[in-house]
Amino acid sequence: MRVFHRVSDFTEWRRSLHGTLGFVPTMGNLHRGHASLVRRSVAQDDHTVVSIFINPTQFNSHSDYDKYPQTMAEDLELLNDHGVDAVFAPTALEMYPNGFAHKVVRTDTQHILCDAHRPGHFEGVLTVVNKLFAIVHPDNAFFGEKDFQQLLYIEEMARDLFTGVKVVRCPTEREKSGLALSSRNNRLSIEARERAAKVYQWIHYDRLSLNDLAERMKLQGMELEYFEEHWGRRFVAFWIEGVRLIDNFDVAEEKRRQPEEIL
């Protein structure tokens, strides 16, 4: 497995490839959810590239950016074990040589969900993904449905900017408790992870109003940010131990399944 830190070095290697290229963009601190995306790419494409880059432009606070876990050695070992061909791990200066001088901005922002609560977040996400698409030139790019609003925006950007990249949707991976896998989970205590998993149960199986859910979460030491339905899915964002978590699910799909099938 090759590891590249400079755009020029990666570009030279990319020119030598033949066949299809799958791409999994990440910010590192990899877990089973990332591994499922990698497996999908390895199975589908002739070559697989994974990026590891903690993108500073998508964070709303410096402290959140500084706290993001960095586990490069463990990440590279996992990716090597899963048959990845190359890892692109650039520095912030390599990705933003002129600072944040140019950005991708949605002009039809809907001001819902994370778009409303994290101003500027999606500008950072779309800008860095567009840069990565231009560098990697993948045929397919794999994204998880846990960040569903982000997934929709990236799909739209890929089409509107004629990137030629097919965005492949992959289902959310969960812990046995139902808690959606996230790199942020590592910042929680074991007890907090158990409490956070209750939110999954509540929004799936209890018919709670917004106020009911907010009150129930408050009693568990959590703070609700939003609880809404859009695009046939139910979305939630909340805070626990100073960590922000999100989740969503397809309402129609969940109605067809029994709890034991999910857990």
Helix-strand pattern, N to C? Answer: EHEHEHHEHHHEHEHHEEEHH
Q: Main beta sheet, described?
A: 6 strands, parallel
Count of the domains:
2
CATH overall fold name of the largest domain: Rossmann fold
* Biggest sheet: strand arrangement: 1-4-3-2-5-6
- Can you tell me the residue ranges where pLDDT is under 50 for at least 5 consecutive residues? 258-263
List how many beta strands DSSP finds.
9
Helical residue percent band? 40-55%
* Structural class by secondary-structure content: alpha/beta
Mean pLDDT: 93
Instruction: Please compute the radius of gyration using only Cα atoms.
Output: 19 Å
Principal-axis shape equals: globular
CATH-scheme architecture of the largest domain = 3-Layer(aba) Sandwich
Alpha-carbon distance between the termini?
Answer: 35 Å
Strand content bin: 15-25%
The CATH homologous superfamily of the largest domain is named: HUPs
CATH class of the largest domain: Alpha Beta
Counted by DSSP, the helix tally is: 12
Break the fold down into its secondary structure elements and pairings.
Blueprint: E1 2-4, H1 7-14, E2 21-26, H2 32-44, E3 47-52, H3 62-67, H4 72-81, E4 86-88, H5 92-95, H6 113-117, H7 121-136, E5 140-144, H8 148-160, E6 166-170, H9 190-205, H10 210-219, E7 223-230, E8 233-240, E9 243-250, H11 251-255, H12 259-262
Parallel strand pairs: 1-4, 2-3, 2-5, 3-4, 5-6
Antiparallel strand pairs: 7-8, 8-9
